[in-house]
Design a protein that fits this description.
The protein has about 150 residues and is of the alpha+beta class. The chain is about 40% helix and about 15% strand.
Length: about 150
């Protein structure tokens, strides 16, 4: 996380560059199980936003994630769809230009929290966390433990 004082200093330079008719958009896409509201509060981002707005500058603080989740015992127990970036999102394939293109595990990566059909249909295997067999077994144990607790 970037300290609010750093954000404020950069925003001052942006304001100077764009003038009072411009717009500052401060966006972040934290980890899916993070509380965006807590991050905004901890860093004082609403206070920074309100300061610039009081000076007549348009200033927005945006959560750019498309999904957030709630985790219990290291297992996702709830998902919430979010608006994401209001300007949209794109998927791009670096193909052979990716640093992962020639990795010996290419095509065999496993994402513990992704729809494997989506990963298998994608030429972007490096977008998912890489788990070895022991880690997969650990995830399975966590999932089973969470199911047992819910029973």
């Amino acid at each position: 996380m970037t300290h609010g004082s750093i954000i404020r200093a950069v925003a001052d330079y942006v304001w100077k560059a764009i003038g009072s008719t411009g717009k500052i958009i401060l966006g972040d896409a934290p980890q899916a199980d993070a509380s965006f509201e807590s991050i905004v509060s901890l860093l004082g981002l609403n206070t920074i936003r309100d300061f610039y707005r009081s000076k007549g500058l348009s200033f927005e603080v945006l959560d750019l994630r498309r999904q957030a989740c709630r985790v219990r015992n290291e297992v996702i127990v709830e998902r919430q769809e979010l608006a994401g970036d209001p300007m949209g999102a794109i998927v791009f394939d670096l193909g052979a230009d990716s640093e992962c293109a020639d990795h010996q595990g290419a095509g065999h990566y496993y994402g513990a929290d992704y729809d494997t059909r989506q990963r298998q249909s994608s030429s972007l295997p490096w977008t998912s966390p890489i788990l070895n067999r022991g880690e997969r077994d650990s995830v399975r144990r966590h999932l089973q433990s969470a199911e047992d607790e819910d029973s």
